[in-house]
Amino acid sequence: MRVKNTTQRFELFVRDLQESFWGDFQGRTQEVLKKLLESDAEQQMADYLGLKWHERAQPAERVDYRNGFYQRDYLTPLGTIRLRIPRTRQRSFLPRWIGRLERRAPEVAELMRQAFLRGISTRQVGKVVAVLTGESVSAQTVSKLTRVLDQAVQAFHHRWLGDDWAYLVLDGVWLKVRRAFGPQRVLLLVAYGIRRNGQRELLAFTRAKGESQAGWEGLLNDLWQRGLCGQHLQLVITDGCPGLARALETVYPRVRHQRCWVHKMRNILEKAKRRDEKQVKAEAQKIYLATNGAAARRAFERFRFRWRSRYPAMVRQLERDLPDLLHFFTFPQHLWRKLRTTNVIERCFVEVRRRTRPMVVFTNVESVDRIIYAIFSRFNEDWKNRTLELFTQAA
User: Fold this and answer.
1) Which residues contact 116 (CB under 8 A, 6 or more apart)?
2) What is the per-residue pLDDT across 195-216, written as a single tens digit (0 to 9) for each?
3) Predicted structure pTM score
4) Do 244 and 150 sit in the same domain of this protein?
């Protein structure tokens, strides 16, 4: 027991020593920075007047008259500093490192933007800044600072993509936007690309009212104009949206189209009665878990023979979609699991929903673009040195 008490007293001593040292260090550094900035402002005024403090000049030679000072708070990485800004009757003199309307150091503003890009909400960014600087920053202030990302968003939408993409995954995600007449749902159409060497990237996104052929053609034509002409494109994977399928026939007619088996299984089970769900699921899974394309077609024949009398519409629909559901069998076997679903892009949507859920609704469509760009940029940055190993083996 004595040892434990001694250890606790030592830990408290170390903690108090650290707090007293760093607190004193930060306070002294703030004071030095304050004096440096105020001295620069005073020197600017002296140069402007041509007079040092207490010096006098003839009325005919005088440029202006001193007029005291005003106080201004300036947020720095060391905390908030209250500066005395000297002024004359005609102008004031800010330190050269501070802009006229600038209320915080560029390092603090960059910290907020980088925190936002790393996936922290605007409200939480303000709390992070408060921990580091001792000054609370509102979510509205953080949101204003992130508006400088608009140029980066435009650059993302217009950057050159090249034509070395082997696989393209397309899907959409719904978000809410606050409008004058109330919240409204907005659909984001997203393109995800994979190269033959396993490099991946979220290529593009665009807003749309629905998954119509026109909406998807807009995104696909944008990819085409930015260099993705499909010369090396081997497979496009989608959730089976009819409008998207028609758009692919228009823009990339020679590229094979793989429909997602997860979405297809969901459609099949929606039509099955509860008592049949387990057996229908097991027999439908045998189709895509077959050892090759021929075995998959035989599995479908058995499925059709078993269920066509009870669920004729469901079986006919599966038969129509079967060619687009089996394209993955033409690729190396170790890629089958990756190529038969849209799971790679769905995982990205999980992060999108996680980031946007605390926001409830977006105030405008520009804020949608900023937050989606922030999420996608973080993904793309993380993926630069992390390739998909399965695709690397196939290269």
Assistant:
1) 122, 125, 142, 146, 149, 374
2) 988 899 999 999 888 889 999 9
3) 0.70
4) no
